C-alpha cells in the first residue's frame, strides 16, 4: 500500500510540474507575440521623411512619433507599447487592460488611469514571476522607459511602497505625471501573495523621440 501511495504522490508531483511547464511555455509564447505586435506599432519609420515609402527604411532614416496623443485610443486587450527597464536590460509588451488574459500577454495598463503626457497617474501592473521577474533588483534611482506610438517617455523611480493586496487607494488622481508600477509581494512568495510592491517613478525628460 505504501508503495502504491508513493507512486500516486510521484505521479501527482510530475503532473504539477508538467502543468507548470506548459503554462510557462504558453505564457512565453503569448508574451513574445505581444512584444512583436508592440514593436511593430512603435517602430515603423516616420512617413513624413521625404523619399520614404510605407515599406522603406533607408539607412539614416529617422524614427519618430507615428501619431498625436489625441489620436491614440487603444482597444482593450491590444498591445499598445513597450516597457523597457534599463537596469535589467529587458523589454516587455504593454497590453491595454489588467484582466488575467491581458496579464498573460504582458504588462497590463489600468484603463481607468492616464497615459504618458496626460499629467496624471499611469498605472501598470504585472506578475512578479513572469514579466516582472527580477524586479526585486530595482531600487530608487533606476528608470523605466515607456515606448508608445506617439513618443518615448522616461521615468525615474523616486520611492517605493508595500501595501495590502486589497488596498485600492493606490489607484487615485495624483495631480501630476507619475508612473506607478505594481506587482505582487513578497517577490519569492509561493502561492497568492498577500501584498503588493509599488514603484513610484517620475518623468526625467519627456517626450524623447528616437
TrEMBL record:
Coiled coil: none
Record GO terms (molecular function): hydrolase activity
Pfam families with a match to the protein in the record: Sortase
Keyword hit for Nucleus: no
UniProtKB keywords: Hydrolase
Tree of life domain: Bacteria
Active-site annotation: 127, 184
Cross-referenced CDD domains: Sortase_D_1
NCBIfam families (UniProt xref): class_D_sortase (NF033746), sortase_fam (TIGR01076)
Name this polypeptide is given: Class D sortase
Source organism (scientific name): Paenibacillus campinasensis
Amino acid at each position: 500500500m505504501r508503495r502504491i501511495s508513493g507512486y500516486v504522490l510521484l505521479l501527482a508531483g510530475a503532473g504539477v510540474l508538467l502543468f507548470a511547464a506548459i503554462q510557462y511555455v504558453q505564457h512565453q509564447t503569448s508574451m513574445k507575440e505581444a512584444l512583436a505586435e508592440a514593436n511593430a506599432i512603435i517602430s515603423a519609420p516616420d512617413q513624413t521623411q521625404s523619399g520614404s515609402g510605407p515599406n522603406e527604411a533607408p539607412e539614416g532614416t529617422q524614427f519618430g512619433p507615428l501619431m498625436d496623443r489625441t489620436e491614440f485610443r487603444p482597444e482593450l486587450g491590444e498591445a499598445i507599447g513597450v516597457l523597457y527597464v534599463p537596469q535589467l536590460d529587458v523589454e516587455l509588451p504593454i497590453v491595454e487592460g489588467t484582466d488575467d488574459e491581458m496579464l498573460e500577454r504582458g504588462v497590463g495598463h489600468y484603463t481607468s488611469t492616464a497615459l504618458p503626457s496626460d499629467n496624471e497617474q499611469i498605472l501598470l501592473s504585472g506578475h512578479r514571476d513572469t514579466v516582472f521577474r527580477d524586479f526585486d533588483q530595482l531600487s530608487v534611482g533606476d528608470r523605466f522607459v515607456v515606448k508608445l506610438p506617439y513618443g518615448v517617455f522616461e521615468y525615474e523611480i523616486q520611492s517605493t511602497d508595500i501595501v495590502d493586496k486589497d488596498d485600492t487607494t493606490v489607484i487615485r488622481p495624483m495631480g501630476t505625471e507619475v508612473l506607478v508600477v505594481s506587482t505582487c509581494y513578497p517577490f519569492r512568495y509561493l502561492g497568492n501573495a498577500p501584498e503588493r510592491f509599488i514603484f513610484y517613478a517620475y518623468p526625467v525628460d519627456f517626450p524623447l523621440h528616437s
